[in-house]
Amino acid sequence: MPTPSAPVSRLSPRTIGTSAAVITVLSWTSFILVARASADPARGGLLTPLDLAYCRIVGAALILLPWGAYLVRQDRARGLTGSSWLGLSPLSRRVTVSVGLFGGLLYAMLAYSGFAYAPALHASVLMPGSLPLWTALLAAWLLRDHITPARATGLALIVLGDLLVGGLSLLRAFEGGQVWLGDLLFMSAALCWATYSVLARHHGLDAVRATIAITTFAAVTYVPVYSALALTGVVQAQIFTAPLREVLFQASFQGWGSVVISGITFTQMIRYFGPVRSTMITALVPGLSAIGAVLILGEPLHWNLVAGLLLVTAGILFGVRATRLTATPGTVLPNLQTSTGR
């Protein structure tokens, strides 16, 4: 008799977890660089910031809406008839609207608009840096989370880093600069994502279902309205006149890469490394995106940006270490996620 063939070797959990971490960090870093290069009018971008948000939502919706419809059919087959919206979101209407408004719609509009005014170096500090700050404050207010003195120290470092970057830009506003506006938009985008994160934690949402829900809400509300405004000339848009290759690239990168792929790899990274170690890994994003902004985009690296970057990164790591020391074994800490939504 022939010898049975050996079973096909499968990737080890460590390989899968490490690969997921690398893809997540690279995806979040490239999001900042590509968004700035695409939205900056001085670089000859072919699409407006709101066009980029449109591409992000449509690209993600092409994959996630059919996925959501499949999950809804599965839920209904199990007798769960009240946990869907429009047959597309696997979450209820109330939850879909609340998380979708902040995590799907406002985040995309604010973040891409910020890249039209401020450089990627500012986004590297303010978006990842503001996120744990807003998340901690919102969780303390809405979820009654306790901020320990050690964690407060980490948050204070983040505030100092944000002030070094955004504060100096605000002072230059009196000279006619607009960078401060981009900084304000970045911090507002981080606040929206932090609100989404806290709501997801409050409702105990599954990462995949939550991502589908926020994309469903954005697709149902933003896409038809923006399409009508663009076609009638009410808003200045290039989405229907730009080269098709540019639209397809942005839809695939911003939608498939920044939303779908990084969402899946981030969840896989959490499963292997845990929330605390995952947050320490994603603390690499500010530094890597700052280096990329200097080497690839040619942005100047001033002293306040270096100091702000170091303070923000130290604040993230300090806060994560403080949480790890106070957490009991097996504790799940979903509020530690520092995703920028990408």
Folded structure, characterized:
This protein has 342 residues and is mainly α. It has one domain. The chain has ten helices and no strands. It has helices at 13-39, 49-77, 93-115, 120-142, 149-171, 179-203, 207-231, 244-282, 284-295, 303-326. The longest helix has 39 residues, at 244-282. It starts with 12 loop residues before the first helix and ends in a 16-residue tail after the last helix. Residues 1-9 and 325-341 have low confidence and may be disordered.
Q: Which properties best describe this structure?
A:
mainly alpha; disordered C terminus
The total count of helices amounts to: 10
The radius of gyration over CA amounts to 21 Å
Secondary-structure-based class equals mainly alpha
Low-confidence segments: 1-9, 325-341
Query: How many domains, in number, for the residues?
Result: 1
Overall outline = globular
Largest sheet: none
Element order: H for helix, E for strand:
HHHHHHHHHH
How helix-rich are the residues, as a percent range? over 70%
- N- and C-termini, Cα separation: 55 Å
Percent of residues in β-strands: under 5%
Q: Can you give the mean pLDDT?
A: 85
Number of strands: 0
